[in-house]
Structure formats: C-alpha cells, structure tokens
Amino acid sequence: MSYLVLAIFLAGFGYLCWKNFRLALGLFVFLLPSYFIRFQIGPLPTTLLELCFGILFVIYFIKNRGQFNKKIGNWRWPIILFLIASTIGIYISPDRTAALGIWKAYFIEPILFFAVLVSAVKKKQDWQYIFHGLALSALAISILAIIQKFTGLAIPEAWAEERRVTAVFGYPNAVGLFLGPIIILAFSQIYNFFKEKKWLWSIFYSAVFALSAIAVYFSKTEAAWIAVAAGIFIFCLFKKELRLPAIIIAAILILIIGLTPVIRQTAIEKITLQDWSGHVRRVTWSESLDMLGNNFIFGAGVSGYPLKIIEYHRAGYIEIFQYPHNFILNFWSEIGLLGLFAWLWLVARAMLNGLKNHKEPFAAALIAIISAILIHGLVDVPYLKNDLAMMFWLWIALAFFIKNKKAVKRP
Question: Would you tell me which of 24, 200, 327, 328 could form a disulfide with 377, CB atoms 3.0–4.6 Å apart?
C-alpha cells in the first residue's frame, strides 16, 4: 500500500513538473527534509527527496531538449574542482560503497540542481515560489518541533530528558542548521513585503520567522542562535532604515552582557569553547588534525572519517562523530585540500556577487545567509547532509541570478 501511495505522489509530482515547473520547484524545496523517508528499489537504497529530484531533473531535461545555461562564466572552475575532488574522495575512502552514495547525494545531485536553477529561474517572481516553498517547509518543521517540546513526541532518547527538539531529523543541531538560513530569509522577506505593502505576505513570513526562531531555541542549538543573530544584523547593515536600530540594539545587548557577571561569564565560556560542548569540539578537532597530518592532501575520503579517525581517537569518553564539526576540517577530511579550496572559492564568489550588487533584490539576504552558514559552520556541519547540500547550491544559484542583472526587476 505504501508503494502505491508513493507511486501516486510521484506521478502527481511529475505532472506538476510538466505543467508548472516553477511551482514544482517550490514543492521540491518544501520537500527538502524528506530525505529521511527511505526506500529500497531492488538493491538500491534511495529517498523520497532523491526520487523527486530525479523526476524534476529528467522532466526539465526532456522539456528543454537537454539545454542548460552555458553562460556560467568563471563559476565552472570551482564547480569542476569540487567535482574532481569529490570523485577522488571516492577512491581514497576506506568504504567505497558508502562513499558512492554520499557522492551522489551530496555532490552530484545538488550540482545538477544548481544547473536546473540557473537555467530555469529567470525572474524575481520565480525565486519567490522557491522562497515560499522554503518558508512552508520551515513552518512545518517548526510546528512539529514545538509540538515535540510540549509533548516529548518522537524525541530520540539521547535528547528526551532535556526535551531538545529534533522534528523529523535525527538530532537537535539539524533543526538549527536547516531553519537558521530560512529565518534570515524570512526576515528579509518581511522587510521586502512590508515596503511593498503586501500585508498578507508580511504576516505569513512573520509567522515563519517567529515559529522557526522558537523551534531553534527549543533545539538548544546555541551556534544557530549566534549565527542567525549575526546574519540578521548583517542584513540590517545593508538597509538604511534598519542600520541604526540594529547597531543600537547590538550595542545594548553587548552592554548587558558586559555588565552582567553571570551572563558575561557564560558568554566567555561559550565563545572560548570552555563548556562541555566546546571541550568535545576541541578534542575532536585535535584528533582530526592528527589524522589529517598523515592524510594531508586527500583527507580521509568521502565517508571515510569515522573509520580513519579510529587509530587517532584517544578520548574514549567522547564518541566518534561522522564529521569533525568544523567546515574547514569537514571538507578537508571528506574531499581533501582541493575540495576545501573549491568550496571556499564558491563561497567567496557568492559573497562577492552579493557585495558588488548589494542594491539588487535578495543580495543583502544572500550575504547574510552565507555569513550565517560560515559562522555556524565553525562548530558544526553546514553542508554534508542531503537537505543542506541542496540548499547550499540554491544559495549559489541565487548568487548567480543576482549578478545577472538583466533578469532582475527592481521591486
């Protein structure tokens, strides 16, 4: 019966892709968290997200006779390097079967998604469909997380006592990683729609902003709190109406923290990683650097970190994680120095596009979101997950769109 429901849903999604592709893009981004719905098709494991992307890509390919936007300029070089590094990572990996699955889900499919976006999304209004899809997804995740907080429903045992919410994800930090960028996006949309006097959309995005912020708070993902606050502050700096209020509020908060001994001490412990969470990361980073010292160029290979770190793992009281929880060490470990360089190149190009065109629609939001991803990524894993990889390439596509000013109408 479940496979019948799946078949009907996928057929409906395919029909939507054929009839209204931009609406299908909105639905697809709404479904980003659906990677947790897993299936086995013959010997091959897959997910609902992967099946939907396959349909989306194939239909776009057929309808457009295999034509994609070839005018991506200098973007092609970091993308090519990223692909080369990830492919090398398969051969370096001690578990090539797992590496192939990760390579497909975290590298190939997200880059193909980027190719679809830069080819299909040509107008500001098209991006609004995508943003609405992200907002609705955040709304669903947030409502589930808030219900979890008050009922304890489906919270994994490891976080049940603290009531750290996880929504559909397997761990609390995933809530902050997914919702953080969307909270900043929602804030920017509130600003835009308020200026345009589109009150219903302003109310909708205010609800998304508020509920998502509550969900992230309930997840107790402290790095997400800091990253989101920093992202919103950066966004405000680009808007003259918001700049002074943001600076005043930031100054007041700094004064409160500085003049309140208990808060000040807690803040210092968090920033200097002196609390338990910080200790775990410092130990993990130290062991990871030891491992990378002997695997300097290529790292541990795709999905190879948990196996290669074993011989360097001395702190038996700390579990071995899937990744080192720092974006530099994450990419260095997974796809080597070449992959890390390529990812940083992509991020730098996205930021420069935003800064050079900061008066264009969505540019300030893009800069703020990328900044938040980098801040959060100092102590977590902001890319190496199905939904986050897709979302990252969505932001890169937005950076490409912003630079293509001919396609942008000012609001």
Answer: 327
Tokens of 149: 């907080």
CA distance to 94, 107, 192, 314, 326, per residue, from 311 (Å): 14, 28, 53, 8, 20
In this prediction, residue 409 has a pLDDT band, given cuts at 50, 70 and 90, of: very low
* Average pLDDT of span 296-304: 96
Question: Is the predicted pLDDT of residue 43 greater than 90, yes or no?
Answer: no
37, 64, 91 - which closes a domain = 64
Q: 98 - beta bridge partners?
A: none
145 near 219, Cβ under 8 Å? yes
143 C-beta neighbours (distance < 10 Å), count: 15
The burial class, CB within 10 Å (0-12 / 13-18 / 19+), for 206 is middle
Domain count along the chain: 2
pLDDT of amino acid 347: 98
Helix, strand, coil shares of the chain as percentages rounded to 5? 75, 0, 25
Q: Is the model's pLDDT at 5 over the cut of 60?
A: yes
Its domain, for residue 36, covers 1-64
Task: Give the integer Cα–Cα distance in Å for 402 and 357.
Answer: 7
Do the domain assignments include residue 286? no
Token pair for residue 176?
A: 């902050």
C-alpha to C-alpha distances, 338 to 38, 82, 253, 288, nearest whole angstrom: 32, 7, 40, 18
Give the pLDDT confidence of 125-172 residue by residue, as tens digits.
Answer: 999 999 999 999 999 999 999 999 999 999 999 899 899 999 999 899
CA atoms of 298 and 65, how far apart (whole Å) = 38
Contacts of 352 (CB under 8 A, 6+ apart): none
Crossing angle of helices 124-151 and 199-219, in 10° steps, is 40
> In 3D, which of 339, 371, 340, 347 has the Cα closest to residue 75?
347
In a domain, residue 354? The reply is: yes
DSSP readout, 41-85? ETTEEEEHHHHHHHHHHHHHHHHTTT------GGGHHHHHHHHHH
Whole-number Å distance between alpha carbons of 134 and 51: 19
- 89 and 48 fall within a common domain: no
Reference 49, options 32, 61, 30; nearest CA is 32
The dihedral over CA atoms of 91, 92, 97, 100, expressed in degrees to the nearest 10, equals -70
